[in-house]
């Protein structure tokens, strides 16, 4: 009896030893579980999951995004390109399985067609593609309690309608819209994942913009076929002004100032002043056309249009000023010639009168009665004329501007001197009004 019990104990110890040495292959268990829940006749991917807590309500799909990069933001096409990791998560009670005491955390699939998938699409998409190098960047994780996580990496080109009235002092809001294509809100509802629904890579760099912030919201839409669930992300971009300050504003200011050099050149230097005015005008026109080539044709006036238009007007005004100076110079020369001719005629006429009077004095002995040329002091007519002269000939008040302009005898020189002061003052006044107006509007829109 003792021998039998001893043999029985040895057999039990041997069985325990063999059992501990045999390792369970849980990868084989995954295959068994997948065949069990997704086998033929067990799961139909055409049928949507049940609602919350197994009810007949709509299936709840929670969405979150990870923005990996934003490549380009095109003003002329009004679009932007983004690469993101898109994730969806929902509950499907039909996919529950035994986790073997926590040894199977989740099952991984790479074929999205084997389970039910929400029919989400990007409503403002222009182009898009998946990433298949080296393998398709997509996976599906099925958790033991039936939760499904779908993740994929995609690149999208999305439309972004822009308001360019404050360009290049503007801010733009570009949206990313996601909606259900076929399932109405009675069957499918999209919700943002709680906590942190949108994540952005830390080292995000854009060439001419800065991503200030982003906002998540809902945008459900109603059509003739029903109401459809919709999610959207608003990305707020601020345009970097330093690029435009160096490339547009400073060169335009320099061209306007160079056109003022014409005021300091001699009025007789016609080739120099004409070539300077025409060159600056053509350069400014080329600058303006280059700016407009990089922007879409819009019906309203942009801030950059006001700047380039006024700068072009100043350059054109400097060229017209030379035309006025040239005309005034020729008028001054004509007036001087007429004055010389008049003086010469008067001298000739005086000489002829002297010769005639000498001839009369020598040839004629007749006497003529002459009226007195000077009235006596007591003459009432003489006193009246003196009073009228005192009334009409008041002493003029000293005028500093008139006395300063009197230093320049010709009208052409006066026009140049006035232009040297007027053009810079008016341009400085325009700068004050321009920057105060558009910077104030920018702050108002930001608030």
What would your notes on this structure say?
With 447 residues, the protein is an alpha+beta fold. The relative contact order is 0.08. Strands 1, 2, 3, 5, 6, 7, 9 and 10 form an eight-stranded mixed sheet that branches. Strands 4-8-14-11 form a four-stranded antiparallel sheet, with no helix packed on it. A two-stranded antiparallel sheet has the order 12-13.
Individual helix count? 8
Q: Please give the radius of gyration in angstroms.
A: 47 Å
**C-alpha end-to-end distance:** 95 Å
Sketch the major β-sheet.
8 strands, mixed
Structure characteristics:
23% strand, 4-stranded antiparallel β-sheet, 8-stranded mixed β-sheet, 8 helices, alpha+beta, 447 residues, single chain
Q: How does the SSE layout of this entry go?
A:
Elements: H1 2-21, H2 26-38, E1 59-74, E2 79-91, E3 107-109, E4 120-122, E5 125-130, E6 138-142, E7 147-159, E8 171-180, E9 188-192, E10 198-200, E11 209-218, E12 221-223, E13 226-228, E14 230-239, H3 241-259, H4 270-293, H5 303-363, H6 380-392, H7 400-405, H8 411-446
Parallel strand pairs: 1-9, 1-10
Antiparallel strand pairs: 1-2, 2-7, 3-6, 4-8, 5-7, 6-7, 8-14, 11-14, 12-13
């Amino acid at each position: 009896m003792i021998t039998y019990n001893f043999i029985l104990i040895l057999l039990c110890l041997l069985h325990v030893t063999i059992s501990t040495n045999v390792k369970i292959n849980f990868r084989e268990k995954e295959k068994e579980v997948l065949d069990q829940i997704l086998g033929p006749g067990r799961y139909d991917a055409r049928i949507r999951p049940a609602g919350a807590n197994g009810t007949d309500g709509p299936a709840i799909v929670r969405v979150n995004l990870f923005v990996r990069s934003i490549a380009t933001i095109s003003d002329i096409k009004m679009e932007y390109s983004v690469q993101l990791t898109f994730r969806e998560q929902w509950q499907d009670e039909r996919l529950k399985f035994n986790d073997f005491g926590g040894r199977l955390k989740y099952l991984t699939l790479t074929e999205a067609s084997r389970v039910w998938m929400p029919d989400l699409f990007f409503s403002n998409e222009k182009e898009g593609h998946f990433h298949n190098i080296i393998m398709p960047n997509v996976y599906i994780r099925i958790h033991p309690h039936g939760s499904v996580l779908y993740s994929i990496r995609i690149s999208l080109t999305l439309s972004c309608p822009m308001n360019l009235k404050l360009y290049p002092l503007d801010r733009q809001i570009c949206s990313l819209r996601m909606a259900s294509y076929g399932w109405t809100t009675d069957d499918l509802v999209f919700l943002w994942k709680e906590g942190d629904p949108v994540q952005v890579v830390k080292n995000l760099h854009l060439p001419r913009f800065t991503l200030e912030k982003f906002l998540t919201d809902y945008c459900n839409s109603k059509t003739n076929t029903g109401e459809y669930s919709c999610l959207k992300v608003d990305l707020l971009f601020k345009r970097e002004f330093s690029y435009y300050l160096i490339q547009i504003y400073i060169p335009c200011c320099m061209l306007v100032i160079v056109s003022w050099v014409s005021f300091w050149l001699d009025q007789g230097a016609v080739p120099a002043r004409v070539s300077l005015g025409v060159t600056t005008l053509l350069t400014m026109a080329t600058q303006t056309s280059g700016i407009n080539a990089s922007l879409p044709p819009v019906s309203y006036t942009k801030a950059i249009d006001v700047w380039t238009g006024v700068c072009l007007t100043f350059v054109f005004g400097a060229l017209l000023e030379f035309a006025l100076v040239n005309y005034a110079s020729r008028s001054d020369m004509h007036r001087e010639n007429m004055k010389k001719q008049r003086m010469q005629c008067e001298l000739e006429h005086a000489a002829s009168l002297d010769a005639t009077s000498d001839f009369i004095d020598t040839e004629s002995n007749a006497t003529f009665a002459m009226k007195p040329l000077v009235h006596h002091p007591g003459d009432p007519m003489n006193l009246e004329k003196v009073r009228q002269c005192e009334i009409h000939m008041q002493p003029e008040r000293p005028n500093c501007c008139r006395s300063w302009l009197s230093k320049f005898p010709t009208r052409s020189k006066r026009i140049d001197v006035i232009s040297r002061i007027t053009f810079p003052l008016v341009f400085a006044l325009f700068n004050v009004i321009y920057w105060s107006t558009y910077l104030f509007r920018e702050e108002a829109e930001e608030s």
